[in-house]
Amino acid sequence: MFWFGSHPTSPRSVATMLVLLASASLLITMGCATARPAAPPTPPYQPSYRYSLPPSPKDRVDVTVGLVAPQFTGAGEAYWEQSKRDHDTFVIRMRQSLTSSLEELLSSKGFTVAGPYDDIDSMTFPEKKGADLVLYPLMNIDSGYTVGNVRVERDVDLLGNVSATTICDVSFAPSGAVQFVAAEPLSGEKMWIKKVDITQPIRSFRGTGKVCQKQGVTQDIRNAWGQAHEALFQTIMKNIDRYVNTEEFVMLKQQARELRDKKAY
After folding, report:
1. What's the gap between Cα 225 and its chain centre?
2. What CATH number is given to the structural domain containing 249?
3. Is the pTM value of this prediction over 0.85?
């Protein structure tokens, strides 16, 4: 007879218990053998909003440009408001970096730069009168963020337990256009407009849980969002660098003065 605690146990009972213990041990061993090691967490991506400036000219250009921070129009208004509500640092930092990089770019081309200003309305009358032109990007951007094909995925473990996970397909592709606008400061009349398409390739991901309810994102999605805005920043800077020509802006200054004289400011 075998004793466990204070109760006698028969040889047949002991054999049954040993079989059960062996089976449980086998299941645990199988579970350990087939379990995949957890993947290391994805590190956060830190976008670089830096633009390589052209060599500075030897001579300054007799044009004073009032620099205005990027403005938003059309779908861009909702894109910007949502970014501010969500404290989306990628978008907020991109706008801040665009403003500072545009100031450096204009200065490197030989212009005298006034500002930057948050918008034209924030400029005082003397500030508008002292600037030959105002320059700003006008951004009509749609984030293209979509969540679709929401479904439930069921899984059964070795013990027969059933678990359910909500999964979905997530994609985004920032699209739209950015206009570079040079205007006469006092009237706000646009003198010069250049348009650049900023549509990017679609990026797709598998979402789960709250991601499928648009209440969160994975680190992979967030990293790709940061990379997309890093690319957007470079596209804007490269094109405005290409479009802003000192000789053309000298002619625009003269046209702006003629317009100002006609309106008797």
Report:
1. 4
2. 3.30.160.180
3. no
